[in-house]
Amino acid sequence: MLLLDRPNISNFLKDTIKEHYLPVIATQEAWKQIDDISLNWVSEADAIKELKSGDSPLLYTNSENTIKWIQQHLKGTELLRKVRLFKNKIRFRELIRDIYPFYYFRGIDFEDLERISPTELKFPLVLKPAVGSLSMGVRKVHTAGQWTAAVKAVKEEINTYKGSFPDVVMNTSNFMVEEFIDGEEYSIDCYFDADGEPVILNILQHIFPSGEDRGERVYTTSKEIIAGLKDRIEAFLRILGQKTALANFPLHLDVRINEKDNIIPIEGNPLRFGGLCTSADLAHHAYGFNSYDYYLRGKRPDWNSILKDSDGRKYSVVALGNNSGVKGENVLYFDYDSLLSDFRRPLCLRKIDIEEYPFFGMLFVETRKGQEDELEQILTSNLLEYIREKDASSINNN
């Protein structure tokens, strides 16, 4: 069963729903996104009854906006407990504390961010909302001397995009500081089957332009990345699944692997794969299978066959977050044609309204060996070369 909401349902997911006649909960928001009477619509009343009938109902959501519906209609269920456990980073850290006893973290109320003495904290650290999304309000802070400036920057960023997301997705009343983990960062699409066994559907490396910039711009998957990490991550997921009693549960998990080769989870996003239908759709481009179908029908990728021949190709999602310094309301238009011309093999472009969300869109690209320069270029770009601003008179009139 699928629970759908804004901001995005990809054409690939829509086609999957239609092709396999997958049941969709008939919420008002779902109807707004897919106004198609031919779908396998399930009334909210019937869906609630089915989802409450067992501890491990089969459910997939495309957006964390759906958590509000789950909170309203599935109170007291094991499903809601697990959603809250993963969505709140402090609760999640407390759950796995015995696995990572060395790992430093602490919760701080929003109003205490400016009051707390930095001498009480352990640096370097990462400051982030306890309930957040898309790296908004996240800052790496090296020293106590940088604390005040970091808090100020976080508050300014939050005020800029306040109202773009519901409280269940972005709630800034509580923050968390946690030890900075030096190492490579990866995002994992997986699900836990009816027996609690983990099934890996994709592994993407989160590429950063520098050690200081923790923004979301490029996520890359390849056969080499999967082959090098699959067995270790699968073993780690098995431990995590046992700790949290997961079954029939999809998860998008961010981890870091430190210099000692320890896999340390950063956060888990429940009941979905990568946000905005990105990483699951990318897996189809890269490896030819359908992650949505595999989860809902309990299928596993044949990784031995998929990884048999290495081709050196990389498949990436480029998140076009607005790091230009230009406010969304001051953008006349974004030159998508110019953007596409800077890539040799663009696969798919999804445009996003910059006045509603802090992104211009998502671009899917294939990169052949020796052509990584195009990824390096977009990784460090502030996107100003693609932005056309409104003239001063039109801005003043608005």
UniProtKB/TrEMBL annotation:
Residues 89-300 form the ATP-grasp domain. This is ATP-grasp domain-containing protein. Keywords: ATP-binding, Ligase, Nucleotide-binding. One of its GO terms (molecular function) is metal ion binding. Signal peptide: none annotated. The lineage of its organism: Bacteria, Pseudomonadati, Bacteroidota, Flavobacteriia, Flavobacteriales. InterPro entries: ATP-dep_AA_Ligase (IPR052032), ATP-grasp (IPR011761).
